[in-house]
Amino acid sequence: MTHRLARTVAEAHLFMDLHPCEVCGEEQFDRTAAVILVEGELLSRYTGVCPQCGSPREFTFLLPDETPMPDPDEPSFGDDRPSELLDAGEWLWVADEITRTIPAEPDGMTPDERRHARREVRTAAAAVAEARKFVPPGADAVPVGQLWSLAGRAVYDAEPGRFDVQRLELVERVYRELADTFSD
Description:
By secondary structure, the protein is α+β, with helices and mostly antiparallel strands. The protein is built from 5 helices and 3 strands; from the N terminus they run αβββαααα.
């Protein structure tokens, strides 16, 4: 069996969050993590039980050769390689979901709310950066073949121009600038 690489713990958890229980559709479950060796490969295995229907849940990912240390101020989902777990459209969907709940201005927010908003918008910027990694060197946009999920393809079909490399760079930069407006 071929396992797909989870470049970071954050990427693995996001993938699990986006793949609900196949029996009842519940998205969350308490996870127990373990590192296992299968056929000479180090894998991370997450197991748990669906809190809604009691079905067992399990996800297994290939571990990277090097595990980057997470920076609490600068979210990251992986190295320079494109994700093997989420396609470019899913990354843009994640960014959309995050920014949908963030106010455009920090006025009236408590310091804790501002810190949370800054972290969320930086996470959205990191998700857009992940989508940009699917643009091959010298290309102008993410190739349609890099959209293998139904969700990712739906994002592409709704607005293919979002996958242009210049637009991806601009959106990432705008999100990073927006995140700075929430600084204390």
